């Protein structure tokens, strides 16, 4: 309706969800089923990327199980009683960001680092806490630098490409808010308010853990025990497969020695 988030409407959420819904409502009508249907497609695509990521480590059957477990888990993230949570939308670009880093490792094409940065930024613009994805990606790039033993300028270039990808979407939004006189309000509501909110006694770590356990056990089967059980099956499967591979290699070496 022509209103600018943060200037005309107060909210501490990041802005991308507003414009995604505006586009969906413009194209398909302002109805609840529009959000519900789109979110199902969104999570289906996320499960495909989980499968593709898993295939880099596990065999197809295990990867399929992991993607199915992910679908069940993410569907119960908010109790599955409603739609439209920013956490749900932040998941897909976060997964794609990690997938792009894996593709960079496979192909050495720096474009994937740039694309990974774009996806990290997109995930952040859905939810602030997605910024944590930067940590494992930067750690990977740094550890890989010491492993490859290349010049520091090579690592610096990778950092810059990744940061460039992150900066473009965020810069576009903040320039937009600046032009519309909403920059101060957006920073105050997205960052400063949430910083003080995180210090609230309600968010005491022990209370959070207690509430999380209660909510988890209240769900059918309990999503965390359910998830961990299947994860352990996958890990054990991979471990015994690894032992079998070592045994086969040892047998071949012994046969070669006898020969």
Give an overview in words:
The termini are far apart. Mean pLDDT is 76; it is low at 207-228. 77% of the residues lie in helices and 0% in strands. The protein is globular and about 65 Å long. The protein contains ten helices and no strands. Helix 3 runs antiparallel to helix 10 and helix 5 runs parallel beside helix 7. It has helices at residues 16-28, 32-55, 60-75, 86-107, 111-126, 134-148, 152-179, 183-197, 205-218, 223-258. It has 259 residues and is mainly alpha-helical.
- The best one-word shape is globular
Helix content: over 70%
User: How many β-strand stretches?
Assistant: 0
Radius of gyration: 22 Å
The rounded distance between the terminal residues' Cα atoms is: 81 Å
Largest sheet: none
**Weakly predicted, low-confidence segments:** 207-228
Strand content: under 5%
**What is the averaged pLDDT score?**
76
Structural class: mainly alpha
